Amino acid sequence: VHPNVSQGCQGGCATCSDYNGCLSCKPRLFFVLERIGMKQIGVCLSSCPSGYYGTRYPDINKCAKCKADCDTCFTRNFCTKCKSGFYLHSGKCLEKCPDGLETNNHTMECTSIVHCEASEWSPWSPCTKKGKTCGFKRGNEVRVREIVQHPSARGNPCPATSESRKCIVQRKRCQKEGKGKKNREEKRKKSNKDESKETRQESKGRAARRQNREQRENNNKTQPKKRKAPNKEQNLAPVDTAH
Questions:
Q1: What is the distance of C-alpha 148 from the center of its chain?
Q2: pLDDT profile of the chain (243 residues), mean per 10
Q3: Strands 117-118 and 162-168
Q4: What is the third-level CATH fold of 1-65?
Q5: Is 138 exposed, middle or buried, given 0-12, 13-18 or 19+ CB atoms closer than 10 A?
Q6: Of 14, 70, 102, 197, which residue has the fewest beta carbons closer than 10 angstroms?
Q7: What pLDDT does 6 receive?
């Protein structure tokens, strides 16, 4: 063993030196060179730091640098996160997204353009004027629809969600609110009165029927039972047929 190489290393190193740090790592750990000033020091880590990707070999596991525009990567040619000013698309970091895609400054990715989508129109509302449906001949009717998909930054904007058009109705007088309320109250009272009258008549009818039934039962109890008339044929004297 070289005098500068030590076997009793710490921090996951299999072999190390006082000047260069780790020279090899324990199994499953990644070896990476960290620059400190003008000197590079070897360290052993369980996973590669930002800007590096790991490669495993039979003799050693190493961390290699990603491309300059990559913040993190899976391999050198497949980036998973870009540095500031670049947008991720299919593993690459781009300054400008391809046609048909737009930049997403929140995720720093190139995403598909989303256009606005609206629902079907509702049926036309009743013809009204100043909030009323009577007392006029010409008014307006409206219909509405809802936005079901809002657009992205470069998507087509949303259309109008309401429409109005002129309408003509057969003119009718508006019923006064006080008179209408009075009529409704009178109808309600009359209905309650009729119901009460019918209820009283039904009660009287049931009482009369019950009284007649009880009277018939009492009459049946007080009247004596009629005796059966003797059979005339039994009272006839026998006829002497000897002569």
A1: 13
A2: 59 86 90 86 90 88 91 91 93 92 92 94 93 88 96 92 91 67 69 68 74 74 57 49 44
A3: unpaired
A4: 2.10.220
A5: exposed
A6: 197
A7: 60
How far is residue 96's CA from residue 232's CA, in Å, rounded to a whole number? 134
Domains of the chain, by residue range, sit at: 1-65, 77-112, 117-168
Q: Which residues contact 65 (CB under 8 A, 6 or more apart)?
A: 51, 52, 76
> How many CB atoms sit inside 10 A of residue 44's CB?
24
CA distance 226 to 97: 120
Question: The CATH number of 117-168 is which of 1.20.950, 1.10.287, 2.20.100, 1.10.10?
Answer: 2.20.100
Q: What is the dihedral of CA 189, 191, 195, 196, to 10 degrees?
A: 20
Can you list the alpha helix ranges (DSSP code H) found in 74-176?
none
Two structure tokens written together for 25: 């790592």
Euclidean distance between CA atoms 234 and 236, whole angstroms: 6
The Cα angle at residue 34 between residues 20 and 30, in degrees rounded to 5: 90
Nearest to 83 by CA among 62, 66, 98, 101: 66
Cβ proximity of 48 and 33 under 8 Å:
no
Give the total residue count for the chain.
243
